[in-house]
Write a structure and sequence with these properties.
It contains 5 helices and 5 strands. The protein is an alpha/beta fold. A 5-stranded parallel β-sheet has the order 2-1-3-4-5, with helices on both faces.
C-alpha cells in the first residue's frame, strides 16, 4: 500500500499582475484607511491618520466587520468612488493577511492603489498570498506582536512607517513582498 500526499496550496501564478501606483504627491487627495478590525490596530491607524493629515492628505476611515473575511463589496465600492488610494492595516495573523491581500488586490482592480501594513511575522505569508493570486502587492512591515504593545509603541510604529507607506503607495520603493 502506498500513501499519496497532495499539496493543498494553489500553484503560484507565473506572472504577477503589476499594481497601480498612487500619485507621487498625495497632498489634497483622499486616502482610505481600512481598519481590518484587529485588536489594537485602530491605535496605529489613529496616529497614521494624524501624520497623513499633517502632510495635507485627507483621510476617510473604513472598518471591516471582521478580519477573517474579505471586505464587503459595498465597502470596496465606496472606497473606489470616494478615495484615490488605500492603506489596509494592521494584519498580524494568517487569515487576516490572506483576506487583506485579497482586499488590496480587489481595490487595485477597481482603480485604487494601495499598501498593506502587516507585522513582520507575516512577511512570507503576504509574499506567498500575492504569488498565489498573481498580484504584485505593496506592503510595509511593523514589529510583531502588536496586541501587547502600549499605545505609545503603536504610535511610534506609525511614525516610523509613514514615510515608507507613502513611498510604497506611489511606487517610490520596490514592493516589499519577500
Amino acid at each position: 500500500m502506498s500513501l499519496v500526499l497532495r499539496d493543498p496550496t494553489p500553484e503560484n501564478a507565473a506572472v504577477l499582475r503589476e499594481r497601480r501606483r498612487a500619485p507621487a504627491d498625495l497632498a489634497g487627495r483622499t486616502v482610505a484607511l481600512l481598519d481590518i478590525g484587529k485588536m489594537r490596530g485602530a491605535e496605529y491607524i489613529d496616529r497614521l491618520e494624524q501624520l497623513l493629515n499633517e502632510r495635507g492628505i485627507r483621510t476617510r476611515r473604513y472598518a471591516k466587520p471582521t478580519n477573517t473575511r474579505t471586505a464587503p463589496v459595498p465597502m470596496l465600492q465606496a472606497i473606489a468612488t470616494e478615495c484615490e488610494a488605500v492603506v489596509i492595516a494592521l494584519s498580524d495573523c494568517g487569515s487576516c493577511t490572506s483576506c487583506s491581500t485579497h482586499d488590496l488586490s480587489d481595490l487595485d482592480l477597481r482603480g485604487v492603489p494601495g499598501v498593506s501594513v502587516l507585522t513582520t511575522e507575516f512577511r512570507d505569508a503576504f509574499a506567498k498570498q500575492c504569488g498565489a493570486i498573481g498580484y504584485g502587492g505593496a506592503s510595509v512591515f511593523v514589529p510583531h506582536p502588536m496586541q501587547n504593545r502600549t499605545t505609545a509603541e503603536l504610535h511610534a510604529f506609525a511614525e516610523a512607517s509613514v514615510a515608507e507607506v507613502l513611498e510604497r503607495l506611489s511606487g517610490g520603493l520596490p514592493p516589499a513582498v519577500g
